[in-house]
Amino acid sequence: MPMKKNWLRDYIIKRLFFALIVALGILTVTFILVRIGPTSPADKYLANIAARGQDVSQAVAAIEARYGLDKPLYEQYINYVANLGRGDWGWSFSTSMPVIELIKTHWIYSFQLIFLSSILGALVGILIGILSAVRQYSKTDYIATFFSFIGISIPNFWLGVMLILLFSVKLGLFKTYYDSGIPIFSLDNLRQLTLPVITITTGMLAGYTRYTRSAMLDNLRKEFVRTARAKGLPERTVIGKHVFRNAVLPLITIIMFDLGSIVFAGAYFTEIVFGIPGLGRISFNAIFADDYAVVVTVTLISAFLILMINLITDITYTYLDPRIRYD
Fold this sequence. Notes:
Blueprint: H1 2-35, H2 46-51, H3 56-66, H4 73-85, E1 91-92, E2 97-98, H5 99-134, H6 139-153, H7 156-170, H8 187-192, H9 194-220, H10 223-230, H11 235-260, H12 266-274, H13 279-288, H14 292-320
Antiparallel strand pairs: 1-2
Helix pairs in contact: 1-14, 5-6, 5-9, 5-11, 6-9, 7-9, 7-12, 9-11, 9-12, 10-11, 11-14, 12-13, 13-14
């Protein structure tokens, strides 16, 4: 056991070191890309400045000097990284507030959406996948396979628009937009999350169904299953205790990755379609507003989450299957 702890500790330290390098690389690339564009965050003030009759060029120069945007790119980068290390994530030009306060306000909307969708998609998708594998080539299997292919093929943004047109515009069962004034921990909030959750869950459920069915069928053909049945074990025990336990490992990767896709993946477009003020929505608005600090911060948070979740997934593997060891 001490030996296992030692190599696991060394592996975690090594992965954290590489995660830091990757995060720094993503930060650098994103920082450069958003700053080589033809526009500046100060440009959003042009209309107001011109309306007041002020000299536009002088006013923009003053704004850029105030926030250090007139300095060379490498100097802006060094200052940004230094401020980031002190907990200063920058200033949002489009919302006129610190980026860290903006993230604190909006992250919960993304989290609730992806969390509910992942839980529902995983539970239902895995159950359907198990049933489909156990009853291979039956009507249940064919129906599950058919709808899984449809669910995987449908784009999230298109499905979201269709759900709004049908259930909100035509039937009037739900609002056409997300009301952020409703308390998050309330039944009314769950109700207005119904269509967004269905939009994301459709693709997740289809994926979980296909992955579970494939993993279950792969293990059902192995020797230990025939041995368990030969011992007279109940079929429920064979499926639940022996087959599914071995099939669950690849599913962990998919589930954990979905939990990390708060911004990138279906949640990003779903937030835009339904007007949910989550990280995906604010980053989308920030891109068109040339709000550098918000774009870089949201990208960095997403990259960090994915890196950490991959690490947690690898560690979880070692406890679920002692045969796995990372050198």
